[in-house]
Structures
1.
Amino acid sequence: MTSIDEHYGHFSHLDTILDTIQQAYPEGPSPFQLAPIDQLHIGGIKASDKLLKRIDKASRILEIGSGLGGLSRLYYHNQHKEALYVCLDITHPLNRLNSAINHLTAPHSSSILTADGQSLPFDYDSFDYVVMQHSLLNIPDKKKALQEISRVLSPNGQLILHEVLKGDDYASMRFPVPWASQPDHSHLIEEEALLSLLKEQGFTIGSIEDWTQEALLWRTRQTEKANKVQKPALTPALVLGPDFSVMGSNVQKNLADNAIRIVEVIATPR
Ligand SMILES: C[S@@+](CC[C@H](N)C(=O)[O-])C[C@H]1O[C@@H](n2cnc3c(N)ncnc32)[C@H](O)[C@@H]1O
């Protein structure tokens, strides 16, 4: 078992999670009802909606580190039925769960693949978009991952990143966080380092947006919701385990202390 499997694969008990979803939403859950468990990034479904507005219809999309597939289901829910959407994730139990959740929701045509984002099993020019939402943060060899992305993207394609970066006060970083129970699972870098890596691999930077302030507001609202007496049916703890409340509060502190930043970066290859 790799350290990533240990972190993400440990609590993903497929039957328990499916039973919980079916009991709470017997008619089939909507993307909004699933969001607490399948939008495992800072900013939740609103951030995903914003990200998806960058993608044209009828595209070939590869998502690296797709987790439980919330972004793909939202994409199809937003009427982009004709797209080819490949969910790729290194953690097999999450992929199994993604596939099982698909069977509970409106049918769509995403494919789900267990593979490493540092070695993509696709040919040159296979995709119009590569999307990474809080997954580059787990990847140690970012140079290799970006080389692979550049190879599989079409020359007019786009890489869209929604990622966590080191903030100016990274020394105050607290663990555990949702992507890393301990520091050696986390591979955050600074914005400057990310932009240099992208340029070294031949990418041109189209835009960079800082989403930190809205991420902090979102995280603060999640803490308020979690403290209410009536608990929601689905919570991230179902997937990430009982430490999730500490992870969530650490994310809030890390954002407030400027230990981490949230950015969206759009880049084109070659
Ligand atoms: C924080 S989760 C985010 C999941 C999903 N993008 C979301 O926002 O809900 C990070 C995901 O990246 C995946 N991941 C980590 N390292 C990876 C790698 N080398 N290749 C592919 N996926 C990876 C993990 O298994 C996990 O599902």
2.
Amino acid sequence: VYTRFDGVPELREAIADKLGHYNGIRADPETEVTVSAGATGAFHCACAALLNPGDEVILFEPYYQYHISVLMAVEAVPVVVHMQPPAWIYSLTQLEQLVTARTKAIIVNSPGNPSGKVFSRAELEAVAEFACRHDLFVLTDEIYEYFLYDGRRHVSMASLPNMAERTVTIGGYSKTFSVTGWRIGYSVAAQTWTRAIGAMNDLLYVCAPAPLQIGVARGIRDLPDDFYGSLARDYQHKRDRFCSALAKAGLTPSIPEGAYYVLADVSRLPGDSGKARAMYLLEQTGVAGVPGEAFIPGVAGANFVRFSYAKTDLDLDEACRRLTQAGL
Ligand SMILES: Cc1ncc(COP(=O)(O)O)c(C=O)c1O
């Protein structure tokens, strides 16, 4: 049967507990958590609820294309701040220059898809200060919160001083529990915003899939802490093996700090677009990647292909073997 529009109590409570002990966010499961159809649904509802047509929203490039698509769906205007490889550093000066009277929000995605960038606490504090000074919402997509490497710890924007009121935290279990098709995600925000986000969720989805809400709630409750630790260790191992194969193949990777994607420099491959280079690589090796233009428009994007290393060790080993033996 349908559940309450914002999710079953068991799941809202499990998420609120997790937010308390992992994210440092105090959220009332009754009024501040909205379970939705994946993080995608949660993000769409937040944008539909909080943005008006013509509102400008700043996001970091390379960006996750769905963020742009959702902004366009609600007729908001994406405005990008460039990050420089290989460490994906952005300039606060450029950020300031992008602000206009129409700027309404800024999107942060850390750990990030496609760059694997993890914003340091200092970087998040700088964005927080910027958002407060210009009175902006912060929409923060933290779906890869457990995929962190080299001893990094997750920092949630809403846990920073004075940020809970203006921050919408988006999360979900597609990645953490490897259940992308279950479509279980959530948003967390102050009650006023949650009321509007919940209304949108009701309108667009009625509710998230009922039995799968229960399944995810049990997972959150029952899995031991070490599940999350070993997840990060396993993926760090995958990252290391895949990045070293890319480097050996001459496709210099920008080493991800989190999430499970890597942008590799493919400029030495034949072709004048990311798509042509990705196709060349596919034909030569059978290894598929997404052309960089999906995340960085124009010529800069043509130099990159994004790979996902969320693969079985067997498949990953085979991909590494093919990349290193292809003589690219
Ligand atoms: C940054 C980011 N946010 C959200 C999603 C989608 O999450 P969900 O399956 O919960 O909709 C993805 C999936 O690739 C992602 O990379």
